[in-house]
């Protein structure tokens, strides 16, 4: 019976039909209230859930009565009216469905007439009755009593027509009702979050929370959102990263610390970027970028296992992607030189890099050595990375919070992790020398003065914390939404439950 509805709701995009249906449903709401039955009772006497019934009676033979009476509730997603027998399918929040049969013999003439008159697709309905298997083998509840649990005033979308992407992201509540993939993604995200915390806990990390509103933005190169505090009469910023506060925690002795929370960057939005996004940052005292890379790989592989039961994940389009094994670690400069067919080093003159970028049609707002190298690397190398890959040892001038490489002049101990063609995470051997950090901030301030809106500001309070001594530390940051993208194959707007849309 649940294969096909008897009466599909009209397309909600057709405003006239929606207006007419809403008027009819509002009239039914009024009648329910006036009858004393109510359209929105405070509760209904459920005894179990639809998933539990399906599990318990999965092996009930065709055309058999169980003898057990249950009380269940769900949303009406299919509906068929007959003379003496009506059918409906109730759906629970996880998408599980069960057929309900409302017959004249069981409920009586008045109750059956009321069912036909009052129940619509989309309503939440409570039913009580015996669990049976129909003549077609459909697990069902043979209703003896029913009532409206919540009257829907607007109709559901057509269940046989796929929702557009815009409808999915703008009306996620409809997406969750209609589409199994939407519900699966929400569960996958919850599984990922539990896995991340479990992995951190197994390595003795402590979870903390740091300010969302900050008097000075920092911790990343990004344009912030600006707001104003009436209480303090001062300009504040939505944070672009928790880094500088987590490092303060490390100075204070929380030697293994992490945070999972929201960041905000006043930049573009596309298939891999959202102005508001969830991020993990973690810092491990007496670690370096190699150890933090090991931890990051473990975090991601454990998350894949939690969702897919394997390191080989299956994306929404059916493609399999292998997150298992040891991931390659390649040098940015060496991989760029090999792909470009010419040797590029930290000593390559700026003019040569500018000429190469110009020939390739690459434009960079601030043409520093590091920014040109990174843009050239993205042009030549990024698209060729099929397996998860750590790209190591970045230019110094683009990494103001990173320690200089212990043996390679002109680069820093930083990696970016690329998975599925996009940057998923970044990791550092953190810069803990307050004198060098001040010098780096000064250079960033010069860039800001020349118009670089993403440059960091000189943060005296953070420098004061560093001056009290921060141990050698490895740190990492990873987008949670992008981690879901790597595991599910979806775009970022699908992995965020309620994404910001224009």
Overview of this protein structure:
- Residues 192-499 form the Aminoacyl-transfer RNA synthetases class-II family profile domain.
- It is an enzyme of class 6 (ligase).
- Mg(2+) 2 binds at residue 423.
- It catalyses: tRNA(Lys) + L-lysine + ATP = L-lysyl-tRNA(Lys) + AMP + diphosphate.
- It is a single chain.
- The chain is α+β, with helices and mostly antiparallel strands and 502 residues long.
- The protein has 2 domains: 17-150, Beta Barrel (OB fold (Dihydrolipoamide Acetyltransferase, E2P)); 178-327 and 387-494, Bira Bifunctional Protein, Domain 2 (BirA Bifunctional Protein, domain 2).
- The protein contains 16 helices and 18 strands.
- Strand 1 (64-80) and strand 2 (85-91) form a beta hairpin.
- Helix 10 crosses helix 12 (369-380) and helix 13 runs antiparallel to helix 14 (460-467).
- The model is unreliable at 1-12 (pLDDT under 50).
């Amino acid at each position: 019976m649940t294969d096909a509805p008897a009466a599909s709701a009209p397309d909600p995009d057709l405003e006239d039909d929606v207006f007419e249906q809403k008027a009819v449903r509002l009239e039914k709401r009024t009648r329910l209230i006036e009858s004393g039955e109510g359209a929105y009772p405070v509760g209904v006497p459920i005894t179990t859930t639809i998933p539990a019934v399906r599990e318990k009676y999965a092996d009930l033979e065709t055309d058999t009565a169980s003898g057990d009476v249950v009380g269940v509730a769900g949303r009406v997603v299919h509906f068929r009216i007959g003379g003496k027998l009506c059918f409906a399918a109730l759906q629970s929040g996880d998408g599980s469905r069960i057929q309900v049969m409302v017959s004249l013999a069981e409920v009586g003439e008045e109750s059956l007439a009321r069912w036909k008159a009052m129940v619509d697709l989309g309503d939440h309905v409570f039913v009580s009755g015996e669990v049976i298997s129909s003549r077609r083998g459909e697990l069902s509840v043979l209703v003896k009593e029913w009532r409206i649990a919540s009257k829907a005033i607007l109709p559901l979308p057509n269940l046989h027509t796929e929702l557009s992407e815009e409808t999915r992201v703008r009306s996620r509540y409809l997406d969750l009702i209609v589409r199994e993939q939407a519900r699966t993604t929400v569960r996958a995200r919850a599984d990922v979050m539990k896995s991340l915390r479990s992995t951190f806990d197994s390595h003795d990390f402590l979870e903390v929370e740091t300010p969302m509103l900050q008097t000075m933005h920092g911790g990343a190169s990004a344009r912030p959102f600006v707001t104003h505090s009436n209480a303090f009469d001062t300009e504040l910023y939505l944070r672009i990263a928790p880094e500088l506060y987590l490092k303060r925690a490390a100075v204070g002795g929380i030697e293994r610390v992490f945070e999972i929370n929201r960041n905000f960057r006043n930049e573009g939005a596309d298939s891999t970027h959202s102005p508001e996004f969830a991020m993990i940052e973690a810092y491990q005292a007496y670690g370096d970028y190699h150890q933090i890379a090991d931890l990051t790989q473990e975090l991601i592989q454990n998350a894949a296992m939690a969702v897919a039961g394997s390191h080989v994940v299956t994306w929404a389009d059916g493609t399999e992607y292998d997150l298992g094994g040891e991931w390659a670690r390649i040098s940015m400069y060496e991989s760029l030189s090999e792909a470009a067919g010419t040797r590029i080093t930290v000593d390559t003159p700026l003019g040569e890099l500018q000429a190469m970028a110009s020939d390739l049609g690459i434009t960079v707002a601030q043409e520093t050595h590091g920014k040109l190298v990174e843009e050239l690397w993205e042009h030549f190398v990024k698209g060729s990375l099929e397996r998860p890959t750590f790209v190591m040892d970045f230019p110094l001038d683009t990494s103001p919070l990173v320690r200089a490489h212990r043996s390679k002049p002109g680069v820093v101990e930083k990696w970016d992790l690329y998975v599925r063609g996009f940057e998923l995470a970044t990791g550092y051997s953190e810069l803990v020398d307050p004198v060098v950090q001040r010098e780096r901030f000064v250079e960033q301030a010069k860039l800001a003065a020349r118009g670089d809106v993403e440059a960091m500001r000189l943060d005296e309070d953070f420098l004061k914390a560093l001056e009290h001594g921060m141990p050698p530390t490895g740190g990492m940051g990873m987008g949670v939404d992008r981690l879901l993208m790597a595991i599910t194959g979806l775009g970022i707007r699908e992995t965020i439950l309620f994404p910001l849309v224009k």
